[in-house]
Design brief:
Chain A is of the alpha/beta class. The first copy, chain A, folds into 2 domains: about 5-55 and about 340-450, Aspartate Aminotransferase, domain 1 (Alpha-Beta Complex); about 60-340, 3-Layer(aba) Sandwich (Aspartate Aminotransferase, domain 2). Helix content of chain A is about 40%, strand content about 15%. The first copy, chain A, has 15 helices and 16 strands. In chain A, strands 4-10-9-8-7-5-6 form a 7-stranded mixed sheet, sandwiched between helices. In chain A, strands 11, 12, 13, 15 and 16 form a 5-stranded antiparallel sheet that branches. The longest helix of chain A has 27 residues, at about 180-205. The interface between A and B is large, with 109 and 110 residues.
Amino acid sequence: MSTVKDLLARRSAHLSPALSVHYRRPVHVARGSGQYLYDTAGVRYLDCINNVPLVGHSHPAVTEAVCRQLSLVNTNTRFLYEVLAEYADRLAALFPAPLSVCFFVNSGSEANELALRLGRAHTGRRGVVVLDHAYHGNTTSLVDISPYKFAGRGGSGRPAHVQVAAAPDVYRGRYRGPDAAERYAGEVAAALDRARSESQAGQSQAGQSQAGQSQAGQRAAGLFFAEAILGCAGQVDPPSGFLPAAYRLARDAGAVVVADEVQIGFGRVGSHWWGFAAHGAQPDIVSLGKPIGNGFPLGAVVTTPEIAASFANGMEYFSTFGGNPLACAAGLAVLDVLEAEGLRAHAAAVGAHLAAGFTALAARHEAIGDVRGRGLFLGVDLVTDRASRAPATQLARDLVETLREQDAILLSTEGPGDNVLKIKPPLPFGVADADLLLDAVDRYLTRHGRI
Amino acid sequence: MSTVKDLLARRSAHLSPALSVHYRRPVHVARGSGQYLYDTAGVRYLDCINNVPLVGHSHPAVTEAVCRQLSLVNTNTRFLYEVLAEYADRLAALFPAPLSVCFFVNSGSEANELALRLGRAHTGRRGVVVLDHAYHGNTTSLVDISPYKFAGRGGSGRPAHVQVAAAPDVYRGRYRGPDAAERYAGEVAAALDRARSESQAGQSQAGQSQAGQSQAGQRAAGLFFAEAILGCAGQVDPPSGFLPAAYRLARDAGAVVVADEVQIGFGRVGSHWWGFAAHGAQPDIVSLGKPIGNGFPLGAVVTTPEIAASFANGMEYFSTFGGNPLACAAGLAVLDVLEAEGLRAHAAAVGAHLAAGFTALAARHEAIGDVRGRGLFLGVDLVTDRASRAPATQLARDLVETLREQDAILLSTEGPGDNVLKIKPPLPFGVADADLLLDAVDRYLTRHGRI
């Protein structure tokens, strides 16, 4: 068995330095079960951050389904097999009409890539409006539409075909009052307007050059691309009414709406299967990833027959691994377990308990500025000062490291100020686990959290 | 058990019409083993086309490795685990220095996407030179550099930042003589020149507009992106000397060289692990996919420490599933089996036997215009006329359908004329299998192949 030091040395020998690890003293993982990870020394960690193993680490039903299929055959969608049709039926049934056509890929990035292609094929426009701090994936085209990346460290700035609207954050953002939903929707409208006017200006500037003209013309927004609850922006749950209004404005401007449900989909928000549904909004394209196969590499896009038809212009779409029988078996097993174990309702109940617990802590700890989110997708915003709401970045980081070291609790930070405790555990996470986490945070803030 | 008709109906209900299936009467696959697929009626098919299950369908060693890991834990690279470091060590050891830094992703498309990002980060240039008919993947940026897609059905033409050099095809291409390698390298030089001159022209045209100027300036070639043996161009094995010369020219022009080994890597070519090595050439970046995990969704990029350092500019690179323990376990098992079963040498021997067999058939069947390729990556070019070399498209398609119906042999067609029999079986494919295939093709051409 290698030591942590050995493994870090071996990573630096043959793996990219652009990869990062969690914690000053990274966790050397040996096994997992439910909401727990175990390191090679046998220490059990309460996992509050891994949203990918949705139905629990190493769930036996998923293992069994994948292993059974693997021992039979793995192949691709140019052949026929039962489990592909079965999974497409089951997945499509979780979406409101007319969202009914599924595409299967291998990751959330591939899903968002395909969502881009679908939206552009349907509208003939290349422009995209996104929300500030959004992250939509690691490919060239997705870094282009991810302010979290292009405006962050090592980024090369906003591309001309992308417009950014303010994140609808009622705690830290520009608008915090009862009219915030309307005001933030206005910011989306303004971004759509900028896309249109820059497109028109580009066309006239480009003058006689046809290529230049068409390139500039394509800057008009073909897509409004957003998470219903924003992850990288700091677990931001938009004010009620924002999402339906923003979707309506985008459609009025001729764009299609992509709901990026890669982080939050599949019941994590508790009240609904999808974040957009929890907000009473209906997108044209939905992208799925992370928890869809409980960690098996799988992504999907669900869209309308109309948009799927625009994409089927004669060019075959093929993903070698996309929709392979193993992935479909994993995906089906996840849906089965979610239903059999009632995990969506569980997420709603435990999430409400946990959010209430943090709200109660906020009454005693000034450092807790805000508690937000839905179901088991929560954020606890730590501040150095409740009036200014200045991010308590160092406090949040130290808390996370201490909980890892002293309490064997895995937590992480998020948001532009890196001060928001991000809570998105495997869904078996229960009330007793929530109480352990609350108690550990309470103890830490009692010792260190005085403002 | 659904019928083929049922399954096709269910596909059309919830899957994209842009997906295609093999054969007029698609195969409903129930299980696989070695070089065989079995349908739900128990019919055994000799599989001559699935290059993804490299070490054989449902190889028990791969199944066992994945299932063992799946029952323990699946996590991501922000945690530490033994199998990631082990796999990176083992994979890197198969490459000549200084190729030594591995990135893990989930597909060949994701690998080529990352290769693009690496090359652009290193050179600061966006332009790409590719070979005609090349296919490099299904994302927006990869369709842009794939003439097979952008110049094919539903494509929207060559983007300004891409230049296309002729495919180095000595059977159907412009140059067929002893100087073909030099002449085709000259075509690459011309493409690099076009990239440079269009970039300069773009810069002066763009005039005062800084954004326009930098965009046009980036058209200079930052990457030369090519397969060492071309798949979609029709199993084209370039003339000896072409690849080293093209690589040298690309580097002289300031580009880095990407070898797309997604189709041909991991010993399929027999003489070497990699196509570029079989051609005596050394790339700067190698992309891997398809067979790397025997069908488990996995891709990788291997590059030099220098290029990896250019990419590590402060922006974290993270792939949720990339390098997960399951994928690493699958990848390691594939390397173990390749070695334990001597499959590379086997591919060389069986491939030579099969190529010699087709060459012998060519003496009796005028329809066989050319036999080419390496190891178990072969192409048999069918013609209506040996003088004009006109593609026998219909003959090739009918042959493939007949072999599927009457001989239970799975074969496919490839190339711009869709007339090249594409042979790339799982590597357990043996001499007796080769003889079965030769016999079936012989019988078909005896009945139908008269020119």
